[in-house]
Amino acid sequence: MTAYPAWTPASRPGIVPLHPLGFGTILGRSFVALRQNPKVLLGFALCVQVVGYLVLLAAIGGVALASFSRLETLQPGTDDFDAVLAGSIAATGITAFVFGLGSQALGVIVQGVVVGEVASAVIAEKPTLGEVWRRVKPVAWRLVGYSFLLAFATLLVIAVVGALLFAVGLAALPLAIVLGILAVLGAIPLSLWLTTKLLLVPAVIILEHARIRDAVPRSWRLTRDRFWSTLGVLVIVSVTFSAIAQVVSIPLSLVSTGFTTVISPTGEPEPGAIVGFIVSTLLTQAATLLVQCVAVIVQSTATALIYVDCRMRHEGLDLDLRAYVERRDAGATDLADPFRENVGRVVGPRPPQYGYPAPGYAAPGYGAPAYPAPGYPPAGGYPAPYPPQPQPQPQPQGAAPQGVPNAAAENPAQTAPAQTDPAAAHTPSASAPAPPADAAPTRWAAPGDGS
């Protein structure tokens, strides 16, 4: 008996189809993936961003208030006043820099959590915040270190270029101005190029647990042949949320200005005007912070989807994801992480139409030859399904068919029909052999019988 496998339902679809993605799919899913798991994405990101923003404001405001308040006891223009002023500025700047790095680290952690959750959503899984954090926790310090390294490299380049321009400006100020303008104009395409080529470094660190020195060249290789589409997604997302931030902040600023003018028409600092200004400013900052939080989520989602698309195209990740989903839905447990399998594998060119094999293309792991696409001849060495049959040739009237000898041509004497006796047709022919008299009747014998 042939044992047939038990029926299993179709696999649950993820947020994207498991084949190489197009530009529109990546861009569209980046905006709608927030609905997949809003508690983890929006809730966690918003809480972390708000806490980091409040701590940053409190630290900078507290240090500035404590340091600059000492100036009220000193006479302006004295050495003590200048020393306290310089110290207050330095203390406030150092506080802003340190807590700014801390806020940046929190933002990087948020991006890591979003990338981990989106990777699970690709294979139709909805993890909790704890499950996502267990995935990100082993490489969290690598993410923070990479962000600090990137910030340090940016500041170093700006400092070197600024020092060179300052040295040139001491000798020729017009030349320094021209060089400064050229440096700014050249920095725009350079920053876009480097941002695009290094975009996948956080995703590689999170999903593959790679080290920084391995993640940087890997991101460089994965974005090969996908530069313009990746750059297009980044530019569209950035421009969209910049426009949304302006649309939100400008009306609130106008409302704040109008409210302050109504309360204090003379411009004198009254308690009501001060309270109204503070409230309107906080509302504007809250709305801007919400837009920035959603922008971070969408950008991180786009990064994860671009990473998945690049690995599908270069390494056949979609084959691993499909196999994982099929085994998981069939009831298998303790499955390996599909994003950490076959890292760096090289596959052949993908078919032109996803879901249908191209002529001569066979997916890795399948030994059967590919079926030829419609319109293509069959592969060499295999006969055609229906070989062509020879067509009969038209014969002249009165000629014998092909393959049948013409009796009239061989014996002209038989051209005329012979007169036969009707009774002779029923008489046995004398030339016909008679059966032998002692012939035994034929009987049936089973196979293997010797008789």
Question: What does this protein structure show overall?
Answer:
The structure is a single chain. The protein has helices spanning 23-32, 38-68, 79-122, 129-136, 140-171, 173-197, 201-208, 212-222, 227-263, 271-315, 317-329, 407-410. It has 451 residues and is mostly helical. Helix 2 (38-68) runs antiparallel to helix 3 (79-122) and helix 6 crosses helix 9 (227-263). The model is unreliable at 353-386 and 403-432 (pLDDT under 50).
> What's the SSE pattern?
HHHHHHHHHHHH
Kindly state the number of beta strands: 0
Beta-strand percent range: under 5%
Please outline the major beta sheet: none
Q: N-to-C terminal Cα separation, in Å?
A: 38 Å
The number of helical elements comes to: 12
Low-pLDDT parts are: 353-386, 403-432
Radius of gyration: 42 Å
Helix coverage percent: 55-70%
Q: Mean of residue pLDDT?
A: 74
Overall structural class, as computed from helix and strand content, comes to: mainly alpha
- Using the alpha-carbon principal axes, give the shape: globular
List keywords for this structure.
451 residues; mainly alpha
Topology:
Elements lengths: L22 H10 L5 H31 L10 H44 L6 H8 L3 H32 L1 H25 L3 H8 L3 H11 L4 H37 L7 H45 L1 H13 L77 H4 L41
Helix pairs in contact: 1-10, 2-3, 2-10, 3-4, 3-5, 3-7, 3-10, 5-6, 6-9, 7-8, 9-10
In short:
The chain is an all-alpha fold and 451 residues long.
